[in-house]
Amino acid sequence: MKKIWWWIWRIFLALFVFMLLYQAWVAAHVWWWIDHNPASSSFMDDRLEVLQDKNPDAELRHQWVPYKRISGNLKRALIASEDAKFVDHEGFDWEGIQKAYEKNLKKGKLVAGGSTISQQLAKNLFLSSGRTPWRKGEEVIITVMLEHMMEKERIFEIYLNVIEWGNGVFGAEAAARYYFHSSAAQLSPFQAAKLAAMVPNPRYYDKHREARGLLRKTDIILARMDDVEIP
Q1: Over the stretch 6-20, which tens digit does the pLDDT of each residue have?
Q2: 171's torsion region: left (phi>0), alpha (psi -120 to 50) or beta?
Q3: Residue 160: beta bridge partners?
């Protein structure tokens, strides 16, 4: 019996050390990205692998652009759509989480999420698209790191450059050119609102660009854009 407990203790200690090392690895990346741009993200790598399973020559559409070269229309549209309290909260919108929980409870299924822009960035940068028991906890830890180590503008800049906007389309510049043959700097209010409306289900809306739900949500975002604050 003592030998069994000894092995259990050794395994527990090894897992604990591994977790500490992983958190240190994540923290080092967050610190580096304070003033260096990430070339890719975990989610981008996952999507590229899926695309290359079908076509070995497949590449992602992605081009990094600085924060100042992204339209204020898109910034306002995304905050209006995804995280209205982004500039004020410290990574988590507790009221939004409560509302999402109540909505999901009422519907009896997952129909709404309460993730902030910071939480979405944490998932995109570091976590796989698969669902695991520890994934949400790790998302919380990474979100806290991002919020304490980076300015809001930097978090938003990275988010704008790495989120998915279609099948193999990532970041504001690639999305603007793919859908509107424009640069991210020149997006109109309507174009920006439509891109923001696509974020929750970008691959579906890539194929269904005139879907009624997409156009309805675009109009809602347009009406809200002037009321939001951007970093």
Answers
A1: 777 778 888 888 888
A2: left
A3: none
